[in-house]
Amino acid sequence: MTNNDQLKTLKLLAKRYARATGKPQHVALDFVANRLGFPHWNALTGSVKAEWTPSEAQTASIKAFVERITSYEDRTFDHIFGGPDAITRGEVRGHPYELKIMLGDVLMEGDGWRIVLPENPSAAPRVEIHINHAQNSPMNDRVLLAEAIGTAKDLMQSVKARRFADWPRRATKPDAEEKVRHPFLQMEESSRWYCLHCNAEITGSQIAGNHWHCPGCGASPINIFPEAFWLGPNEEKPVPVQARAEGQEIEPIVSVVDPRPKLDLSKDQVTHLIRAALFEDAINASERMGASLAEIWVDDDLDVVVSFEDHYWPEEKEPTAAIEVAAVLGIEIELEVFWSDPLFGWPGLGTVTQSAAEYTRMMLDAYRSHGIIEERDENR
Question: Is residue 15 part of a domain?
């Protein structure tokens, strides 16, 4: 292979690296040169002119490195789309882990610990340590933690390579005027972009460098637009985003968590429990309709008022199951009755059957026996 062929191979590898990482071509060329021991690409080409040539082993090492980042056809494809190998298992300094992708984030889980590497590149890695392992967790070792995060970042880099392969190159490479193309709204190009969530104004270089997540609030690419069309003429105008300095290290956020499920009863949850109990109390089709029609109010203290429709729930019938549920929850329950027009004529028909289908036939037959022609709403 001639020196010129060697240069072409290295340039091609640098181009693949630039596409996969979203970096400019000159940065990728310098990166390749650095891995071969040169301060920059010009120094490498100068040595080639002086009859230096990279060895086959050196070229192979660059190729292997680039392929490791861009090899998303198997492992990363399964991680993103849920194939049989969607979970990668391994060890970091003897501590087993499972690695997977969820909604663009990389999740790494071990015994009593978890690392979440957000899709947003400017967001800090989150490290969660189970409260029972707070004192002896391997994540308390900063060196081990850094190694684990590095493993998660390797997978994230492959995921990003897969994403960038689908994006137009102009989405990650601003031109001389800082114009970039939106990865999804591919006809939209601009040097200024706006976040729907925080109204920030973002330069083309900032948005491309942050993989189209807002550098201010972290909003995803679907919330980034070339105009702040949602703001009225009298509303406050967007201000330039305050972005993190390029190259600034992001410290992981470590927290001790208690992952056990916690119950914080809401009004909606209490309503569903009480209504389920009313259906348990109902002994025929009519009462089940009464359970469905009952109006249930829950106040801020979670005490309950149940108002029954008198055509379908007997006034003298006590909803014992609902009362018992309220007692278990430690809340008060008040019962009342309201009157309204029944849904159908002869509401008492439902008291002689438990079958909704049989009640429906009986109700329709009663209408027909009185010569009433069945009509249907044409607007339904």
Answer: yes
